[in-house]
Specification:
The chain is an alpha/beta fold and 228 residues long. It has helices at 8-22, 26-34, 37-49, 66-73, 85-89, 127-137, 155-176, 179-187, 195-205, and strands at 56-60, 77-82, 97-99, 112-118, 138-149, 211-215, 220-226. The termini are far apart.
Length: 228
């Protein structure tokens, strides 16, 4: 039986410490665990922004800079934000990086043309507050593309995914990095609200056309929307 997941400030401290500890081999483990699909998912999200070249895009919980590199490849101007110094220190990107709490971004209102976030929604302390902060910094007409894990609707795919995500991922993580961290990551899906509630929260925050795109049979999801 798993221990209860941390909440509030205890969660924030635990997440920061965990990512500081796994930063050095984070990219390697991601590529192996997703069979390289994480690269395709970020490219799909970047296209879904539908923003012109030169757009200022904030990548929240940027980690080692994967999304920043993809945004730069699309000739946008990425800026990465993360509260884990270990992840920022291990980053491989030429984009500006800022150590900051993404619930309180050090930016003026309506400053950004777009926002991306890769697989970090379940790691924030207050998801509603995050969506409101994103709405604050994105200009009217700006776009968001938020990636997160998901659970397939198909019973067969859901069964296979559950075994892989809950058993094999911690095993691989333990071999290559830190088993406790890669056991937490599957468990942290419990922090995510249901699909409809996620969209309702985005609508209420200021993205009335927000919609969900299922990726790779439903093992990942992409939330996109336009700032009203």
């Amino acid at each position: 039986m798993r221990a209860p997941l941390p909440q509030g400030e205890q969660k924030a401290r635990a997440v920061r410490t965990m990512f500081d500890g796994i930063a050095r081999r984070y990219d390697l483990v991601n590529r192996i665990m997703t069979f390289g699909l994480d690269i395709w998912w970020r490219r799909r999200a970047t296209r879904a922004l539908r923003l012109p070249r030169g757009s200022l895009v904030l990548d929240l919980a940027c980690g080692t800079g994967d999304f920043c590199r993809e945004l730069a490849r699309a000739e946008m101007r990425p800026v990465g934000f993360d509260f884990s110094f270990g992840m920022l220190a291990a980053a491989r990107t030429s984009a500006p990086l800022v150590q900051a709490d993404i619930l309180a971004l050090p930016l003026a209102d309506t400053r950004a043309d777009g926002v991306t976030c890769g697989f970090a929604l379940r790691n924030v302390v207050d998801l509603k507050a995050l969506f409101e902060e994103i709405a604050r910094v994105v200009r009217p007409g700006g776009r968001i593309a938020l990636l997160e894990v998901s659970e397939p609707r198909s019973r067969i795919l859901r069964f296979g995914h559950s075994i892989y995500f809950n058993k094999i991922v911690p095993f691989i993580g333990g071999l290559l990095s830190n088993r406790a961290a890669y056991s937490y990551l599957p468990a942290s899906v419990a922090y995510l609200p249901p699909r409809d509630e996620l969209l309702h929260m985005l609508h209420a925050a200021g993205f009335p056309d927000a919609r969900r795109i299922s990726l790779t049979g439903g093992v990942a999801q992409l939330l996109v929307g336009t700032r009203a």
